[in-house]
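Translate structure to sequence.
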C-alpha cells in the first residue's frame, strides 16, 4: 500500500510538471480601455491563443499565420496575460513597460522593440530556448540577463537616435550578461547604449558585433575566431587585440583612444575605419583586400597603401603625412588628405578618381600644385559642386585652369602667376654609397635621370641609392632634414644627402664582462619592429623584437667574458654593470650611450656619427675623442680622469657636465648652443672663457683655481656656482636673469647685486668679509624675488675666511624679504647707511654732525646726530617725518643703525591734519589715524563712497590705499568733518 501511494504522488508531480501553464505577462503605459495588437505564433496546430486582457477573463483566438496573423483586444486591467505556448511572439510598438515569460520552452523568437520596458523588467528566464531577441529602442531598459540563454543566436538591443547630433541621446542599458561558455550567439547589435563592459568570451560563434557609441573602456574579442564585422567606434577603448580574428572583414574602431592597431593577421579586411584615435604608425602590408580605408585624425607620419589594388576610398586627413604613393591604387575614386604636410601629390595612375580634398597642406606650393593638376584624369562632365578642394594649400597663384579644363570644380581659383623654373641640387658624397636623382616626364610619367643636378621646380624628385658592401640606406636628408621615403619636391636650391648604416648583421656592440655575472641592459631600436640578437657569451643566439618608442630591458647572466648585441640599435644603457670593456665601433646607428659607473679604460666613438647623448661618467678612460660626433647635444663625463677635452667639433652641444676630472684645458670655442656647463673640481684648469656662450643658463665652475671670471656676455644666466676659487671681484650687472648664486669660499669684496632683481638664493659665506662689508652687500641686495620658507642667504662660514656675520646688520637684508642664516646684531660696524625715501610735494635735507649734507646711500657714524630740514614745495608744508617708522622730534635723530627716513608733505591749508574738541585726525604712509576719547566715525572717499564706519575709543588705525579721504567724527561735544591725505 505504501509503494502504491508513493507511485501516485510521483505521478501527480510528473503530471503537474507536464501540464504547467505557459504564460507571457505584459504591462503597458496605456490607459484602461486602450486597444492593443499582438502578433503571436502559437505552438498549437489549431492556432489557438488564450488571452486575459486584465480582467481574469480568458478569451480564445485563432491565429493561423495565413488569414489571421494577429490578435487585438482592449486592455482592461494592469496586466495582460497570454496563456498559450508560443513559437514566436511580437509585442513591438505597444507601449509595453514590462515582460515576464513563464514556461515557454518552445519560444524561439521574441520581438519587443520600440516599447517602454523599464530597468530590469524584461524577464525571459522562462524562455531558455530563445534564438532571436529583438528588444531595441526601449530607452529605459537597463539590464539584460542572458546567462542561461545558450541557444540565443541573434540579439538586437540597439538604441536608434532621434537626433544624430545629440551625444546624450542614448539607451540606458548598462549591463548585458551573456553565457560564460557554450553560447550560440552569432550576432549582437547594442549600439548607442551605456555599456562600460561586456564579456563575449563565452560566445565563440559571434561573427557580427556592433557596440558603437557605448562607454566601453576595453573589449576582448580574442575568443571570437568567427568574427567578421566589429564595430566599436565612439567608445573609450585604449587597446584592441585582433590577433585571433583571422576572418575579420570589417572593422570600425574610430573615435576611441587607441595608440596602436595591429591588423597584420587580419588579411580578409575590406573596410578599416580607425579615424580619430592617437595612432602613430599603421602597418597595412598584409591587408591587400581593403577597399575602404579611413585613418584620418591620428598622428601618422607615414602611410603605405601600395599593396591595396582594390582601394576605392581613402581618408587620411588630419595626420602628419608628407607624402603618399597612390601609383598602385588604380581603382581609387575618393581621396581626403586635408590638414597634412604634403609637399606634392600624384594622381596619374588613379584614372577613376572624382573627389580630392587637400585643403590646409601648407607644404604644397603653386608649382607642386601645377604638377598635381597635370596628373589628374579628365571627368565626364563638370560637377556643380566642388570636387577638388584646395583652400589653405597655396593655390592662389597656381594655374587651376589645368584642372578646370579637365572638368574639375575647384574651391580656389588660381591666377597662374607663379613662376616655376629650375633649381639646383647639391649632392653630399659618402664613402658608404652613392645615389642619383630622377624626375617623371610630364607626358609619359616615366622617370628620367636629372642632368647636371638641375631639377624642375614643383616636380617630385626620386632618390635612388647604391650602397657599398655591408651597408644599407637608413634615410635621406634634404637641406639637413630627414624625409620620409625617397621622394621630395624642391622650389629652391637644395642639398641632398643619403645616410648609410651597416646592415643589421654587421651592426653590433661587444661588451667585456666577468663570467657568470648578472647583467642588465636597456636598448631601443631604430624602427617600430627592430630585430635584435643577444649572445650572452657562449655563442648561443637569443632573438627578440623591440620597438623605437620604449626602452626594452635585457636581463641575463653572462656565460663568458664577451657579450654581443647585434641589430640596428640607437639607444644603449649598460650603466652599473662592472663592464671591463665596451666596443661600439660597429654600431653606426647609436644615438644614445649610457655606460655610467663601470671599469672601462678606453672608449672609441669614432664610428658613431649619429651620437647625440653620452654619459660615460665614473670610468677610467683618461682621454675622450669626440671629433666624429657632430650631433652630440648632451655630454656627461665626470670622474673620468680626463686631462683635456676638445669640444670644438660638437656645435650642437647644449649641456656638458665634465666635473671632477683633471682637466687643464677645455675648448668651448664652437659651443655657442651650450645652456649648461659644469666644470667643477678641475683644480688645474685655472681659467675659463665663456664669452661665446651667450645661451648659457647654468654655469658651475667651483674649485677650478679661478682668479677672475667674466660673465658679462652670459645674459641668460639663471644659476652661477663659482665657489672655492680665488675671486676678489665679480661683476654680475649684466646677468639680470640670475636667480641663484653660489660664490662662497672666495676672497670677494662686497658684490653689487642691485641689478639682479630675480635673485632668490645667495651663498656667499667664507669670503672674509667684515661686518661693514656684509652691510654693504645687504644694502645693494635687491628685494628677494620670492617669499622664502627656508634660509636663502648664507653669510657665515666655518673656515678661517668666515664672514663677520654675527655682528653684521642682517636686518637690512631681512627688510628686503631675505632669510639670513644668522641674525647679526649690527655691533661690528661703526657706521650705518642712511636711506632717504623720495616724497611728494617736498624733500628733506639731512646733515651730519659736521654739518655735511647726507645723501641717500651715504654712511654716517653711529651714535651721531643727523639734523633734518624740510624743503616743501610751494603751497605745502611738512606734516610729519619718520626714521625707521618712528616720528622725528626736534628735527633731528641719533643714528643707531641703518636708517630709513621718510616724510609726508601736506597742503599748507592744514586739511590733512586737525585737532579740534578732543578729536585728532592724521595719517602715516598707508595708515589713517583717528584719536578721540570716545566717538563714532565714518570715512568716505571724495566721491562719497563709505570706506569705514565704527566706534573709536582712544585711537583707531585704518590701513588705507593712497588717496584723499573725508573723515566725519561725532563725539559728545561736536560733529566734525576733516579732509586727510593718505600717502
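Result:
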Amino acid at each position: 500500500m505504501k509503494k502504491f501511494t508513493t507511485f501516485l504522488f510521483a505521478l501527480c508531480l510528473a503530471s503537474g510538471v507536464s501540464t504547467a501553464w505557459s504564460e507571457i505577462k505584459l504591462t503597458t503605459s496605456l490607459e484602461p480601455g486602450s486597444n492593443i495588437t499582438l502578433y503571436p505564433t502559437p505552438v498549437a496546430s489549431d492556432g489557438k491563443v488564450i488571452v486575459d486582457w486584465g480582467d481574469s477573463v480568458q478569451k480564445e483566438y485563432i491565429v493561423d499565420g495565413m488569414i489571421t496573423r494577429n490578435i487585438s483586444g482592449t486592455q482592461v486591467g494592469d496586466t495582460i496575460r497570454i496563456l498559450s505556448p508560443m513559437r514566436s511572439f511580437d509585442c513591438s510598438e505597444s507601449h509595453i513597460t514590462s515582460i515576464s515569460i513563464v514556461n515557454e520552452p518552445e519560444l524561439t523568437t521574441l520581438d519587443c522593440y520600440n516599447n517602454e520596458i523599464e530597468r530590469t523588467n524584461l524577464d525571459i528566464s522562462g524562455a531558455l530556448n530563445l534564438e532571436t531577441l529583438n528588444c531595441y529602442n526601449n530607452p529605459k531598459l537597463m539590464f539584460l540577463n542572458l546567462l542561461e540563454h545558450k541557444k540565443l543566436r541573434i540579439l538586437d538591443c540597439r538604441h536608434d537616435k532621434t537626433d544624430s547630433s545629440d551625444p546624450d541621446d542614448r539607451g540606458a542599458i548598462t549591463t548585458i550578461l551573456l553565457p560564460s561558455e557554450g553560447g550560440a550567439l552569432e550576432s549582437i547589435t547594442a549600439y548607442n547604449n551605456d555599456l562600460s563592459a561586456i564579456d563575449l568570451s563565452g560566445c565563440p560563434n559571434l561573427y557580427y558585433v556592433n557596440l558603437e557609441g557605448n562607454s566601453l573602456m576595453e573589449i576582448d574579442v580574442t575568443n571570437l575566431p568567427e568574427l567578421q564585422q566589429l564595430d566599436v567606434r565612439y567608445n573609450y577603448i585604449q587597446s584592441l587585440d585582433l590577433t585571433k580574428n583571422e576572418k575579420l572583414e570589417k572593422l570600425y574602431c574610430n573615435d576611441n583612444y587607441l595608440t596602436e592597431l595591429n591588423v597584420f593577421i587580419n588579411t580578409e579586411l575590406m573596410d578599416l575605419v580607425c579615424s580619430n584615435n592617437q595612432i602613430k604608425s599603421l602597418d597595412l602590408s598584409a591587408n591587400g583586400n581593403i577597399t575602404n580605408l579611413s585613418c584620418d585624425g591620428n598622428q601618422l607620419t607615414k602611410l603605405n597603401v601600395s599593396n591595396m589594388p582594390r582601394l576605392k576610398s581613402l581618408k587620411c586627413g588630419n595626420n602628419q603625412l608628407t607624402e603618399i604613393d597612390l601609383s598602385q591604387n588604380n581603382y581609387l575614386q575618393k581621396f581626403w588628405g586635408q590638414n597634412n604636410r604634403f609637399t606634392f601629390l600624384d594622381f596619374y595612375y588613379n584614372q577613376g578618381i572624382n573627389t580630392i580634398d587637400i585643403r590646409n597642406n601648407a607644404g604644397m606650393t603653386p608649382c607642386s600644385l601645377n604638377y598635381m593638376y597635370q596628373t589628374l584624369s579628365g571627368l565626364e562632365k563638370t560637377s556643380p559642386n566642388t570636387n577638388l578642394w584646395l583652400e589653405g594649400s597655396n593655390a592662389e597663384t597656381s594655374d587651376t585652369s589645368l584642372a578646370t579644363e579637365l572638368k574639375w570644380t575647384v574651391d580656389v581659383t588660381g591666377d597662374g602667376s607663379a613662376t616655376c623654373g629650375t633649381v639646383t641640387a647639391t649632392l653630399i658624397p659618402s664613402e658608404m654609397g652613392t645615389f642619383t636623382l630622377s624626375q617623371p616626364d610630364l607626358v609619359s610619367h616615366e622617370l628620367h635621370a636629372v642632368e647636371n643636378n638641375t631639377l624642375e621646380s614643383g616636380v617630385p624628385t626620386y632618390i635612388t641609392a647604391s650602397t657599398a658592401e655591408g651597408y644599407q640606406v637608413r634615410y635621406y636628408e634634404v637641406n639637413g632634414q630627414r624625409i620620409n621615403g625617397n621622394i621630395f619636391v624642391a622650389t629652391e636650391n637644395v642639398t641632398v644627402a643619403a645616410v648609410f648604416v651597416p646592415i643589421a648583421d654587421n651592426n653590433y656592440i661587444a661588451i667585456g664582462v666577468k663570467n657568470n655575472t648578472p647583467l642588465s641592459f636597456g636598448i631601443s631600436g631604430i624602427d617600430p619592429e627592430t630585430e635584435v640578437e643577444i649572445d650572452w657569451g657562449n655563442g648561443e643566439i637569443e632573438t627578440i623584437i623591440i620597438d623605437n618608442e620604449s626602452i626594452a630591458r635585457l636581463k641575463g647572466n653572462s656565460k663568458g667574458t664577451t657579450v654581443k648585441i647585434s641589430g640596428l640599435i640607437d639607444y644603449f644603457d649598460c650603466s652599473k654593470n662592472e663592464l671591463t670593456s665596451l666596443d661600439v665601433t660597429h654600431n653606426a646607428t647609436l644615438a644614445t650611450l649610457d655606460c655610467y659607473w663601470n671599469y672601462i679604460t678606453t672608449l672609441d666613438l669614432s664610428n658613431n656619427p649619429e651620437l647625440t647623448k653620452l654619459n660615460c661618467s665614473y670610468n677610467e678612460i683618461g682621454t675622450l675623442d669626440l671629433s666624429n660626433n657632430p650631433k652630440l647635444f648632451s655630454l656627461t663625463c665626470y670622474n673620468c680622469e680626463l686631462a683635456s677635452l676638445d669640444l670644438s667639433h660638437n656645435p650642437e652641444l647644449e649641456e656638458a657636465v665634465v666635473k671632477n676630472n683633471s682637466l687643464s684645458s677645455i675648448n668651448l670655442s664652437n659651443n655657442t648652443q651650450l645652456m649648461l656647463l659644469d666644470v667643477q673640481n678641475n683644480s688645474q684648469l685655472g681659467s675659463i672663457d665663456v664669452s661665446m656662450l651667450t645661451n648659457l643658463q647654468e654655469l658651475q665652475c667651483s674649485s677650478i683655481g679661478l682668479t677672475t671670471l667674466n660673465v658679462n656676455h652670459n645674459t641668460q644666466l639663471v644659476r652661477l656656482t663659482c665657489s672655492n676659487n680665488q675671486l676678489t671681484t665679480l661683476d654680475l650687472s649684466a646677468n639680470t636673469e640670475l636667480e641663484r648664486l653660489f660664490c662662497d669660499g672666495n676672497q670677494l669684496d662686497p658684490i653689487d647685486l642691485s641689478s639682479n632683481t630675480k635673485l632668490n638664493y645667495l651663498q656667499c659665506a667664507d669670503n672674509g668679509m667684515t661686518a661693514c662689508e656684509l652691510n654693504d652687500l645687504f644694502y645693494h641686495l635687491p628685494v628677494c624675488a620670492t617669499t622664502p620658507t627656508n634660509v636663502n642667504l648664507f653669510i657665515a662660514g666655518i673656515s678661517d675666511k668666515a664672514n663677520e656675520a654675527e655682528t653684521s646688520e642682517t636686518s637690512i637684508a631681512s627688510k628686503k624679504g631675505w632669510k639670513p642664516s644668522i641674525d647679526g646684531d649690527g655691533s661690528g660696524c661703526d657706521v650705518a647707511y642712511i636711506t632717504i625715501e623720495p616724497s611728494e610735494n617736498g624733500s628733506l635735507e639731512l646733515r651730519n654732525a659736521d654739518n655735511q649734507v647726507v645723501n641717500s646711500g651715504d654712511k654716517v657714524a653711529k651714535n651721531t646726530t643727523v639734523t633734518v630740514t624740510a624743503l616743501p614745495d610751494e603751497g605745502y608744508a611738512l606734516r610729519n617725518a619718520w626714521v625707521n617708522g618712528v616720528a622725528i622730534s626736534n628735527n633731528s635723530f641719533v643714528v643707531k643703525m641703518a636708517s630709513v627716513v621718510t616724510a609726508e608733505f601736506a597742503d599748507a591749508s592744514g586739511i590733512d591734519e586737525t585737532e579740534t574738541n578732543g578729536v585728532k585726525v592724521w595719517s602715516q604712509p598707508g595708515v589713517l589715524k583717528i584719536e578721540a576719547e570716545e566717538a563714532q566715525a565714518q570715512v568716505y572717499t571724495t566721491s562719497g563712497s563709505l570706506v569705514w564706519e565704527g566706534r573709536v575709543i582712544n585711537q583707531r588705525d585704518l590701513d588705507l590705499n593712497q588717496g584723499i579721504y573725508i573723515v566725519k567724527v561725532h563725539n559728545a561735544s561736536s560733529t566734525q568733518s576733516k579732509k586727510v591725505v593718505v600717502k
